[in-house]
Amino acid sequence: MKTDPLLPDYREQTPEVAARFARLVKRPVALEVSGLTKRFETPRGIVTALDDVSFSVHKRELLSVIGPSGCGKSTLVRILAGLETPSGGEVKVYGEPVSGPGPDRGMVFQGYTLFPWRTVKENVMFGPRMAGTSAFTADSEAREWIELVGLSKFENAYPHQLSGGMKQRVAIARALANQPRVLFMDEPFGALDAQTRCQMQSYLLEIWKNVDITIVFITHDLDEAVFLSDRILVLDANPGRVREVVEVPVPRPRSTEQLFDPSFLGVRKHIDNLIHPPGQEQKEAPVLRMAVADPDVV
Amino acid sequence: MTESHLFKNWFVIRRDLPPSRRLLLTCISFLLPIALWCFVSYVPWIWHPDIKIELSAEREGVTTVFTAGDHVSKGFFPEFVEAVRKDNAVVLAARAAGTSEPGAKRKNQKLLRQLAPLAVSHDWLPYTEAQNDAVLYTLWRDIATGKKVTKRPSLTPENLDVVRKNWALLAAASAEFSFAKLPDTSLLKLIPQGKPANPIYLPAPDEVIRTGIRDFTAKVPEGELTMGDRYKRSLQVIFLGFLWACLVGIPIGILCGVFDFFSKLFEPFVDFFRYMPAPTFSTLLVAILLAGDAPKIALVFIGTVFQLILVVSKTTRLLDPSLLEAAQTLGAKPRQMITHVVIPGILPNLYNDLRILLGWAWTWLVIAELIGVKSGLTEFIETQGRFRNFDRVFPVIILIGVTGFVMDQILSWLHGIFFPWAGTSSSFTRNLIRILRWPVKMISRSNPATP
Ligand SMILES: Nc1ncnc2c1ncn2[C@@H]1O[C@H](COP(=O)(O)OP(=O)(O)OP(=O)(O)O)[C@@H](O)[C@H]1O
Ligand SMILES: [Mg+2]
Prior knowledge:
The complex is a heterodimer of chains A (298) and B (451).
Chain A: H1 15-26, E1 29-42, E2 45-58, E3 62-66, H2 73-81, E4 88-93, E5 96-97, E6 105-108, H3 120-130, H4 135-148, H5 164-177, E7 182-186, H6 194-210, E8 214-219, H7 222-228, E9 231-236, E10 241-247, H8 262-275
Parallel strand pairs in A: 3-8, 3-9, 6-7, 7-8
Antiparallel strand pairs in A: 1-2, 1-4, 4-5, 9-10
Chain B: H1 19-42, E1 50-55, E2 71-73, H2 76-97, H3 104-112, H4 116-121, H5 133-145, H6 157-173, E3 193-197, H7 205-217, H8 227-258, H9 260-273, H10 282-289, H11 294-317, H12 321-329, H13 334-370, H14 376-386, H15 390-418, H16 427-445
Antiparallel strand pairs in B: 1-2, 1-3
């Protein structure tokens, strides 16, 4: 594959990074997806959303799934969480096949799915309470999780009193309070403004560092994917197929300064090419009949 | 600045007006119909197609007798007045000719009582003493000599003249009432008096208020119902009917909204049944449940419950499904999803549904009270309506309206208190909640066990 001559090859890894990946693949497999297929029957025929998708995620890995809109990312993550049944294939979490939603797999949705009638703390307590933990224990645990996401001041606020970023932090705390083995996140920061999103990404890395958890992160944002992940699963659209699994050569710990590192830009460019193949660039926009020519506006 | 904006920005598409303007419009929305009512009632030349008789007279050979308070049409009243004048002219002519009339004494005693309605309206005589001829006799004297002046209504000069002429005749015979000493020639009749009035079905506001106060504060004989009793009975019927509808309808509605099984099992029939008007079951209900309030409560129940099931199931289906999915990924089991997600999630909307359905229940109340043995406020409306006492009917109708409206307003305000998280509460209710919660907060804060 041809790469940009000015940027380093995305496959070039420093010895530390290479060693890290070597250690990573030796970890137990947290999530194993094999031959996953999903077809929807619609009035206009059968839509194949996912076609023979296979990959695996190791313990404590942070894997991003990226792809063009409509390629089946949400469908994939919903199947992983057990909210949807696949038409074919299998999902295993630590060797156990998934047959439905369960507290061992947490999920953070793109929309804010907080329970509006529960305060922040009560939202975070939801999972443990459902599992039968006493109110007292759940309460003190919830406080810790809320502190972890930095919302102690708001523990008694209702969701409608929070900003979008704060809501998503509560949603993360709520999912983590269940102590799931894998956490799925479907474009969790998609609805946030660029600045808040950047902050949230750093928050997420911080949390991931402190909590024993494996994360599958869905996004359509290249920078987000590269910044967060160990590996990136690139999906093709129509039907959704695995295009490539890319190892991110950017060393950890990550920081926002790395956004302009050559290794960062190199792998970013490569994934960009995968999603938007060169030569398939957008055609020139048609000139409107009413357009006004202005030399300063080009 | 504000002045120049006084007439601006009243009509902005889909934008809320400022609170002061909203309050103003709310007041106007009530004042406008009341003002219209007053306008029609009190401005004489607006409508007033009738004459309300204040002073009446009997005519020979005419069977229809009008008494004070009756309405006659504007066209007929002058005819009536003319006829009475003609009668007086005949009397005068007979007197001039010197012909004596048989039975004149008895007739004159009746004519003396023409002043009775006036005496009662001026509180010169209690209603029960309206036939006390001795007092009425002195009344003729007092009015003729100007010792007593009539005000409600005040006698026309023509009628004062009649009173004086009659008194001259009476005084010549005796200063005190004695049947034997009544003149042998006929006295003159008072000429009918009346004032323009609206039809009987539109009493003026002050009449409605006055009769309303009288009816609601009246002491009734032992064994009869006061208005308060009737009101209580009506409220009882509506609340019991509605309560039963809620107890049965809400669980079924929620089950239908949650499980397709129940939805397909119940909803088609419910949908069919609600098109059968509840009142058509009234005879059946009376046959099954016999007299008393049971068939009435059952009617309110039938009228409400089917609608309620459909509305509740729809509200349940409208709950954001992603909340259910979130709960599932958090490990909630099916039963927990209903108790911890569906029910709390739909409560604010359910509450509003119930508010609307309670309004429905009110409409069934009137029909319910008519079936079997008539009862409650409706019975009063029915009876008084039959007697055309519309000034007694209106206060009760207004009472029902005000009750429904006030209840709905209170419930709407409570919505903010019950569901502070819905974000619809006003700043006032938020502060109230904060005050109410303060002790709880203080206790939980002083709890040493929390880390
Ligand atoms: N319930 C459904 N019924 C029918 N078709 C569906 C359904 N859900 C998804 N699809 C189809 O499956 C495909 C993948 O949808 P999906 O939502 O997974 O895409 P996505 O990658 O998440 O897109 P986006 O980035 O816009 O969120 C789409 O073509 C969509 O039309
Ligand atoms: Mg999606």
